[in-house]
Amino acid sequence: MLDWLDQIDKQIFLFLNAFNSPFSDQLWYLITNIPSWIPFYMLLLFFVIKVFKKDSIYLIGGILLVILCSDQFTSSFMKPFFGRLRPCHDDEIGQLVHIVKKCGGQFGFASGHSANSFGLAMFIWMVFRHYWKWVWLIFVWAFAVAFSRIMVGVHYPGDIIAGGLVGILFGWLLFKITEEVFFRMKLEPIIKN
Q: How many domains does the chain contain in total?
């Protein structure tokens, strides 16, 4: 069963990764490149501070914990534990993979980019879902970041799905912990009544 899933994952990866061009390579590299998102992160920070003022420090701490936990869980635990090679390091299909820039580390399950982006998206959505109806669009950003990992040749779809689920779990869990800290300290609750 696992071999069958692995083969399907590889076929889907090769199908999607084959859609490339010089323009799309630049676009996907821009999307996957973390420093490209600094203005977006600054905008999120601005909204958190604008809405929560001095209490925003708890939310910023929660966001940092989401990224730290998601990243460390995927990179320090899952990748070495499962030892699944990245597509670009896989002898079976490596020569068929279109790589943009560089391959990265040896193991790819699960995607840290996917975990971090979906963790951040989940946390931000939980915080702002009662404030702004359009906040769900942050999941479109998370999906684009995760999908870019296929397009630059460094992760299978299964890697990004697993990473996304890890991120969503940590985003939800750390939001709940952060919210509990707010209530215990008798601060303005995160969720509007």
A: 1
